[in-house]
Amino acid sequence: MTDSDKAPNNGESVTTRRGVRSFVIRQGRMTEGQKKAYDRLWPVYGLTREQGVIDPREVFGREAWLNLEIGFGMGHSLAEMAAAAPEQDFIGVEVHSPGVGALLKEIEERELENVRIYAIDANDVIDLCLPDASIDRVMVFFPDPWPKKKHHKRRLIQHEFVQRLRHKLRVGGILHLATDWENYAEHMLEVMDESEGFVNARDEGGFSPRPEDRPITKFEKRGENLGHGVWDLVYRRTN
């Protein structure tokens, strides 16, 4: 999700046992509608750390292409993707409770059966909840850019994090990154080009055109109208 799509950082630490969290602690309360959706639907669509390593076939009741989105924001784009691809399954990760409530509302309104949600740090999802080689596509769209140079070490897309994602992707699986900060885009490109076990999906390398199945958010559209760029990177796991 874009930086504009997030509540303000309240200054909580972003260090953890893995070094960098997948999020920053955010302020914001659920609306009454989001809370009701959460109370009613979380037992059906929510996944927890305590469940341990899941079997996606048991979770969704079928074997299908499995997508993981880390940081889905308010969930609209994830709901759009799930609605457009009912033959695929989607796991979303988000700790911002209004976003979780909003996505649950969309799941109900769109009658989606192919979405499940973790409301915990993505590091725990990766380390404790997902089998190796179980994911067909990982999506990280518009993570916190940490624009100040002294904060670049807090950026989520780092070599160590990418390698942990690699082990959860099947061979041939896709890692799709997107950002609206050019400096972060260049950082992502450098990290990915130096990451073992990945190859750029574009033969000529570099940034990819926006894949048609990545919805354009209202904040991205607003940014485009203001002349802001958006950069997509698509890589495949090779081994």
Automatic annotation (TrEMBL):
Residues engaged in binding S-adenosyl-L-methionine: 69, 94, 121, 144
CC per GO annotation: tRNA methyltransferase complex
Organism: Marinobacter segnicrescens
Listed name of the protein: tRNA (guanine-N(7)-)-methyltransferase
InterPro entries, A to Z: SAM-dependent_MTases_sf, tRNA_(Gua-N-7)_MeTrfase_Trmb, tRNA_methyltr_TrmB_bact
EC nos: 2.1.1.33
UniProt GO molecular function: tRNA (guanine(46)-N7)-methyltransferase activity
Its job: Catalyzes the formation of N(7)-methylguanine at position 46 (m7G46) in tRNA.
Record NCBIfam families: tRNA (guanosine(46)-N7)-methyltransferase TrmB
Pathway this chain belongs to: tRNA modification; N(7)-methylguanine-tRNA biosynthesis
Spans through the membrane: none
Family label: Belongs to the class I-like SAM-binding methyltransferase superfamily. TrmB family.
Residues bound to substrate: 148, 180, 217-220
Keywords: Methyltransferase, S-adenosyl-L-methionine, Transferase, tRNA processing
Catalytic activity annotation: guanosine(46) in tRNA + S-adenosyl-L-methionine = N(7)-methylguanosine(46) in tRNA + S-adenosyl-L-homocysteine
